[in-house]
Amino acid sequence: MFVLEYKIKANKSQQIKIEEAIRTVQFVRNKCLRFWIDSLPKARLKCFDLNKHSTQLREEFEFVKNLNSMAVQASAERAWEAISRFFDNCKKSRDAKFRVFTEKKGYPTFQKDNRSVEYKISGWKLHPTKRRITFTDKISIGEVKLLGKWDVHSLSVKLIKRVRIVRRADGYYCQFCIDTENSNSLPSTGNSIGIDVGQKVFYADSNGSFEENPRFLKTANSRIRLNQKSLSRKEKKSANRIQARKRLAKTHLRVSRQREEYAKRLALRLCQFNDLVAHENLNIKGLARGRNAKSVNDVAWGLFFKWLSYFGIKYGRQIVAVNPYNTSQMCSSCGTLVPKTLEVRTHICGCGLVLDRDTNAAINILKLATEGHSECKAYGVGATTQLGESLVEQVLMLR
Ligand SMILES: [Zn+2]
Predict the structure, then answer these.
(1) How far is the CA of 17 from the centre of ligand 1 (A)?
(2) What is the pTM of this model?
């Protein structure tokens, strides 16, 4: 599954109707949660029971009936997501190994700030040009224009499994959840590449090239901090504060888009010119806490790997994550370990090899991937990192 996103051009009355749909989703979700809570401790309800309850709500409330029946069902499933996540956390915290990470069990709570509505395969219709979408349920949002550069044209409508409207700081967006299993492979290039993400450059590749850090990554944080400062200086509940909050939200949005575009472009290029792309198996979260405190690149790397696995699936390329252990210490020519601290930028080995530290590491990463050493993990179709997570929760995760 993958998500394509367009901005929506909707007029005032359409916006009101979108808000109505979003409110209804929240209403159904919360009602289902209430239904579950009230049934405790006697009954142990399942997702199926919540779905059934949502059908009852349709009969009870006219405005729920206006929303497409599958969209109502998707709202009930949101309640179930929250409940089952709570159960999962309880299970994990019983297991001593996970206790540290799951102190909060997250008892499902009533939602107040829902921002999205999700349709499945009915309740909407794409215009033949695929530049407009019509929502056909009784909420009657009607036809809206889609703005964006995505290639939804090249995809068959059958691949669209879900359609979602999301509210953001600067308007409404339409997301298409695409089934990526039927993809178009690109012809083989005969090339393989290894990449090593670093602090000095965004990444170094095994061919000896470097992708410099983009300027916006450096300035992003200071701009956000500036906006935050100005927000905190404003008086509570004042008009100025509302303005400042909007400004901050927009800055966040702009930065996250720049990151996304950048990550996407790099990943696409790598997949176009290589049959195999090897990278370190980074736990981005762990990295943020461990190595060198927090790096401004962490988020961008996460996105970069996400897009890499997306294009890998789309174009039939192999994306391999290898264990980064010793990749920067080992000599890529003779295999000797040459210990070096982070400050040492050049790899100098007794065998005569002198290379940039990151290039050396990238070559090692490629070697590990192609020689199939242990700890190698190839992303196959459906084995992507965050792409396979529940779509309902992904709305929250992606932004
Ligand atoms: Zn050597």
Answers:
(1) 67
(2) 0.57
